[in-house]
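Internal tracking record. Fields below are filled automatically when a chain is submitted to the structure queue. Please do not edit lines marked as system-generated. If the sequence contains nonstandard residues, flag them in the REMARKS field before resubmitting.
Queue: standard
Priority: normal
Entity type: single polypeptide chain
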Amino acid sequence: MRKSIRQQQSSKRILRFTFFLIFFVGISITLQYCNQKQSGNRSKVKTLNGAGATFPYPLYSHWADKYATLTGIQVNYQSIGSGAGIAQIKARTVDFGATDAPLTSTQVKESGLVQFPLVIGGVVPVVHIESIQPGDLKLTGEIIADIYLGNITHWDDPQIQNLNPDLNLPDREITPVHRADGSGTTWIFTNYLSKISPEWTNEVGVAKAVAWPAGPGGKGNEGVTGYVQKIKGAIGYTEYAYAIQNKMTFVSLRNQAGNYVTPGIKNFFAAFTYADSTQQPSLVKILTDLPGNQTWPITGMSFILLHKNPKHPEKTRELLRFFDWCYNHGQQQARQLEYVPIPPEYVQRIENLWSEEITVEGKPIWNN
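SYSTEM-GENERATED OUTPUT FOLLOWS
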């Protein structure tokens, strides 16, 4: 009798175990199916390709690595300059283009593109002068323009020495280094100089590529920083992240308020804050030579270019997911590399633009 009871109890335990096993296996299968179904919407797209501005490359490469780890989707970005990036997106040889020199509204419309900013950063003059530490050397926009125009040729020139009485500046020839390729960084730099120097405006102007009066040219921010590091007495301009990563000597620059300021995210954000409160409502802001006590005068936005009516909507949809992730989850990486994340209220306006402008057969690809 006791053996029978034990057998019954054992049978009940087996039944309970079997029931729970079947239940959990069923739940597992259901979850696996749901995950497969969800990922199935994304499984066709494994790689996304973009090209353009070197200005944001340090950040874009970090974002892409993190996103690939999280999602398995690889975002390949070629740092080839804004001019080449614009040409490639227009030719549809890449999935997205990037430029620091914003297209005009007419150019955007004629090309069938959508343009929006992804990050904010600063262009900084860097020098190779022995014994000078980052931020020690004070310069003005007028002096920088005269250096690149060939009007100031030596570091001990009285105009530079008068600004820096405590520095022992050498009697060394100045070698001005510039970008050799079509560059949004050059556009930001020349846009600034054109606001400071009438002679610069008349003789050189503003563009992604200009006729430089003097000095060697390097390809990309990498090329400019490489030349400056090799040539004693050189001066160049590059995105702040490149200057920091390469431990280069950046200058203090006099801003519109008359203050000598050093580059950094707080001073880049000061430029954006002023522009956003004073310029016409638009997603495109020009951030050079703006008022404000702490404003860095050579600040700029970096823009993404997409087709309004993409031939491969599944790729564009994945790109928008990536950019959304950058806006909402990539802020810490941006700040670590001394870029300014786009503010949340601005992000909402950008994503509204996606919903309104990027469509297939009249239907939006992106839904907030």
